[in-house]
Design brief:
This protein has about 160 residues and is mostly helical. It is built from 6 helices and 2 strands. A two-stranded parallel ribbon has the order 1-2.
Length: about 160
């Protein structure tokens, strides 16, 4: 019985690792290697400036741009809140995950700015981190459901 359980966990670990690598490659393509350069260095350092503009002046944006900027920046980063705690148990702590993701996204935003493939927007860091925290909330909810069903005897 123990061998079946450990081989199942091994296969699950491999599947998680492969899906995390695929996610990372897709995100690198979307964020860094997207093949378009702005040719200038745009930035926003004022927290909630872009978010406020998207929410309060929705009529000034076409729907696709509005949706991608607001919800895309959240949804695309939900997997970070799933993969990080599976990778390192310390990321089950909300604040540790928030700091790690914010630092990672800060680095990505700096790369985008310096390479002119995007702009630096502090609101992206806020929205992306919120997305990762949603992923963590989903993981914590799933973990509670598994424990309540008796699926984890070890705690």
């Amino acid at each position: 019985m123990r061998n079946k359980l450990s081989s199942r966990n091994g296969l699950l670990s491999i599947a998680i690792a492969v899906s995390a690598v695929i996610y990372a490659v897709i995100m690198l393509k979307l964020l860094i290697f997207r093949g378009r350069a702005y040719g200038f260095h745009a930035y926003n350092l004022v927290p909630f400036k872009t978010i406020n503009s998207l929410l309060m002046q929705k009529q000034h944006y076409n729907f696709t741009m509005w949706y991608r900027n607001l919800f895309g920046n959240i949804v695309l980063f939900i997997p970070l809140g799933i993969y990080f705690p599976l990778w390192k148990s310390r990321f089950w702590h909300t604040w540790k995950l928030a700091i790690a993701v914010a630092l990672l996204i800060f680095a990505v935003e700096c790369i985008q700015l310096l390479s002119a493939v995007g702009s630096f927007d502090v609101d992206d860091i806020i929205l992306n981190t919120f997305g990762a925290l949603l992923g963590l909330a989903l993981m914590k909810g799933l973990r509670l459901m598994i424990r309540a069903a008796g699926g984890n005897e070890q705690g």
